Structures are given as C-alpha cells and as structure tokens.
Amino acid sequence: MLLLDRDGAATDRWTRSEGAAIDNLSRALVGFDALPDALAQITPDQQIGVVISNALAVSELEPFLPRLSLIAIGFPAFADGRGFSQAKAIRRAGFTGVLRASGPLIPDQFDYALACGFDEIELPDISAGRQTVQQWQQARGRLSQTYQRGYRRDGNILDRRRLARNPSGSAAP
C-alpha cells in the first residue's frame, strides 16, 4: 500500500480495525457497519475514521460526520468515478477531516481528486508498483481549469467566459 498526499508519499498513522475492536488504538479506521459500535467505545483521546463504499449514500454517513476524523472512500476501479461525487457531497455536508481515496486510481486523476476534496490517495500494492510517486507528483497541477463548479478552483471555464463577455459582472443573457 502506498499513501500519497499533495506533497508526495505520506505515512499512514491510522490502524485498520476488524469489526469495532479499537482498544489501545489512537487512530482507528473501521468499516461503516462497525462504526456505531466503535463510536460508542472511543475515549476522548482516540480518533475514529471510517472506510466506506463509493455506493453508500452520503445521507447515511451525515449523522456521524462531526465525530469522524477520516473518511476513506473505496474506489473498486479507476474508471468508477462515484467516489469523486461522493467526496464533493461529503465536503458540502460540512466534513472538515481527512478525506482519503482508496483504490486503484491513476496519476491522471490526482488533480481531480484533490479538487473534489480528497486529501490523500491510498493505492494498493499492484498500482503502487506501476506508478511511482514522481509520476503522481508530475500529474499534480496539470488540471488548471474545469467546466464544473465547486472544485476548489477560482471559477470555471464557463464563468470566466461570461465574465470576459460582460466584465461589469451583471447578469449575462
């Protein structure tokens, strides 16, 4: 497993827990099904994170957001982009902790993942063996403009075009 953040390789300080057994773990990462039990037993000095499927409705996760420090969204394949939409929805719901994309993503998706609100990418060994940290770092910053709104960017292509046509900022037809 390789963990990346915007600065390169990172150290994973979280311990995955089977079920809800989180005794003596300062940072425990549990599955969604075990989350209620894990939250019931954490102490004030423990942090809890959750691993979720990219098919989980954000509304199911929302009641837990204030108590979570990390959310890891599973990507079953690099071509399955539901996790990107999920990340945006989780950030819109007010989550300020660490958001991790976990799965076989590719460097071309790095900038987009960061723009959607992810802080980290967790690659399985097979993906990490094919894609160096340097490739991931080179991919960061390639996405300079987007058509979509809300990707942690200053405006988007369409908004910039409208502003160029109408610099006063009043509503354009």
From TrEMBL:
InterPro entries assigned to the protein according to its UniProt record, in alphabetical order: UCP030820 (IPR008318)
Pfam families: DUF934
Protein name: Oxidoreductase
